[in-house]
From TrEMBL:
InterPro entries: ConA-like_dom_sf (IPR013320), Glyco_hydro_43 (IPR006710), Glyco_hydro_beta-prop_sf (IPR023296), Glycosyl_Hydrlase_43 (IPR051795). This is Glycoside hydrolase family 43 protein. GO terms for biological process: carbohydrate metabolic process. GO terms for molecular function: hydrolase activity, hydrolyzing O-glycosyl compounds. The record marks D166 as: Important for catalytic activity, responsible for pKa modulation of the active site Glu and correct orientation of both the proton donor and substrate. It comes from the Bacteria. The active site is at D45 (proton acceptor), E225 (proton donor). PROSITE patterns: PROKAR_LIPOPROTEIN. Belongs to the glycosyl hydrolase 43 family. Keywords: Glycosidase, Hydrolase.
Amino acid sequence: MKNIISFFAVLMLFSCGSKKQIITTNSSSKSFELVNPALPGDNPDPSIIRVGNVYYATSTTNEWAPYFTIYKSTDLKNWKLVNHVFPEGFKDMKDQWGENNFWASELAYDKKQNKIYAYYTAHNRFTKGNPGLQCGTAWIDASKIETGKFTDNGPVIIEDDCGAIDAFEMEDNGKIYAFWKNDGNGCGKESWIWMQEINESRTKLLGTKKKVYTNSQPWETALVEGACFFKFGDYIYSLYAVGGCCDARCNYKTGIARTKSLESGVWEKYPQNPIMVSNEKWRCPGHGTVITTEEGRLFMLYHAFNMDYDVYVGREGVIEELVAGEDGWPILRNNITANRPKSELDFSDDFRKDQKLNLAWQWPSKKERPELNFKNGLELKASNENHNLGTFLGQYIKSVDFTVNTSVQITDAETGIALGGAIYKSTWPGELGGIGVSVSKSGIKIFNNLENSYQVVKQMDKNFSGEVELKMNVLEKAKTLEFYYKEKNGDWVKIDSVSFNPDKYAPWGMGYRIGIVSKGENSTSIFNSFEVKNN
């Protein structure tokens, strides 16, 4: 017990950012019940900072816009989506340089400047091949993080050897260092964690880059990535991930290493690595950040797949307290429970009252935000894009058993709801497809374009007018989909029940989306409301 308390005293001397970590527990402090997932839904590679008594977190958005979430919390339990680094997607980026692969956003707070910096990965559309993966930086005044726009500096870390990903920042001895991974496993070469000094505006690397470490222990696979760095006692520690991160074949694990000097280049890896592995509740944990509270307690925010949901929901943000082991190394207990009430995962949007688009809505990353406006509801311009799926606005699913309901006004457009995934056998990044139900003046269709062509699964010819409600029940871990409609003052009518294979269309690195669709030419859909209830 005395050892734990003494380690807590040491921890109070520093704050840290990292992507996987360990926290000391003060036995005299009041208990702190964690609620997980901290960031429900598809929130991989999370990063967290503290500004005074407020916490901000970000996560990967992958092939969806807006790019890079900004969440806010004052208690590490309740999180609210308040902004995005790039709210309008590529239009907010310098020279619109980012094409896809919007990965691994990392926040850093510069107290002296009162600025928040975001490091992030994207594929540069002006280059070809894997070296096109580069790390950019953007910044915003800390007072404007919830309502303002980041200013993009464009690519800053450009790695010729297979591209650069997973940037991280740490200050030491008055210098600011940037760390990153060369994505060697993406082109048949070694993967290393690298470091180099960066200037105060985070626009230019200084001096010469240096190797930090690579995979060298028997348990490690062909790569190291997602590294974070923090000070603990007499050492600088680094947490890192190895293995496959992002789909049903994942085998992600987390290790830890330490050094007494960044400049020495001498790193010692923990003999008892890995310190975090899959368990009966969470699968493939890794790539996160550590934060120190005002009271000196350490918490790590990282991602993992919920075992109950397979990979369909995506990698969720999980928070855990770090503890000091008897041997002095920081360790994780690796025993977090998914205890967030299902009711907190529900979502509702009354488009007739809310005259702006909720921040939860997303659209495919290579496209501009769909044309829309608010009048008597959400008016969404129809199209035949997304392989004839139509215009799609979606958001994370947060479980695999839920009900979706929407109220629409009948127009010429095929207006409805869809469960979105990746079209089968499409090239990376997977083209958007979906399965769902739509209604127009001439009838109702259950549709599916996940096989790369738009197919009508069931059609009901009927003249509709006024308001109609549509409902989709997602059951049996997304293996059964039920579709219903209801006219005003009427009862629910079942259209059909469809078997679904979620394994086949699960997008690499991403969870499914549920959302609204508007299909047609020279027409507009009108949505009154949208609601998701998790069972």
